[in-house]
Structure formats: C-alpha cells, structure tokens
Design brief:
This protein is α/β, with parallel strands linked by helices and about 150 residues long. The chain has one domain (about 5-145): HUPs (Rossmann fold, 3-Layer(aba) Sandwich), CATH 3.40.50.620. The protein has 5 helices and 5 strands, in the order βαβααβαβαβ. It has helices at about 15-30, 40-45, 65-85, 100-110, 130-140, and strands spanning about 5-10, 30-35, 90-95, 115, 145. A 5-stranded parallel β-sheet has the order 3-2-1-4-5, with helices on both faces. The longest helix has 21 residues, at about 65-85.
Amino acid sequence: MFGKIVVGLDGSEQSERALRLACDLAGKYGSDLHLVHTPQPHTVAFAMGAVSGYHMATTMPSREQVDQAGEKIFDAARAIVKEMGQTVTQTHMQMGDPGDHIIASAKEVGADLIVTGRRGLGSVGSLLQGSTTQRVNHLAECACLSVI
C-alpha cells in the first residue's frame, strides 16, 4: 500500500510525532523511508540550541551552520527510526520553500505517502494549519497524512 513514505522534518515535536507514525506505517507495509528537511533561519537557530521563538543571533547563519543544523536534525531522526526498528532509505536536504521541497522529493522518489506534522516551527502566520502542510496537502500527487 505505501511502498515509499516521505517524511517532512523541521526538528519540532510535531515532526517527531510524524516520523514515529511514518515508522509505524513503514513497519506494517515494508515501506522505504525518505526524510526531507529544508533548513530555514529559525529552524537552524533552534537546532543550534536557541529557545524556540528567541533568535540566537541577529545575523543569518552561515552555509556551514545550516548544513550542520540540518545534519543534527537528520541524526535525531535516524536515532528515532533506528529505535523504531526501521531504516532510512535516503535523506533530502535543500534550501528553499519546505512545501515545494517535500513535493519535489516525493515526486523524485515516487512516494505513495507524505507524512508531515500539522504545525512545526513555522511562522506566526500559519497558526491554524502550518503553511508547509497546507501547501503539501494541496499540491501532492500522492496521499498525505498530517499529524497533530
């Protein structure tokens, strides 16, 4: 049913819950897991240890810091995947719009399902439903699951 599952990650509790649910589904269906992360300045600051909502610095992080923060998010995700008895097939990290990157990654791998947290570390403007999740749900060519 779900041969390939793409999971959108931003380091938030919601994306961790989405990942855990995706791992559960992958165990049931023998699915490949593809993890997608699109670094954003506020998620980089969060991954580097800043308190959510408080910026660690007023300058943009360097490309090296962005890459390090992304790998930190992937490392945490890999630990969860391993704990749940699954394996990561592939990781995808690219700068840009998270929704577009998730959609492009899903198309690239031929995903049957995209799993995202309903609201992650997104901006205040996305309080009702995360703009990334909303965009993914609107544009995806496969099934989508939004996790609370």
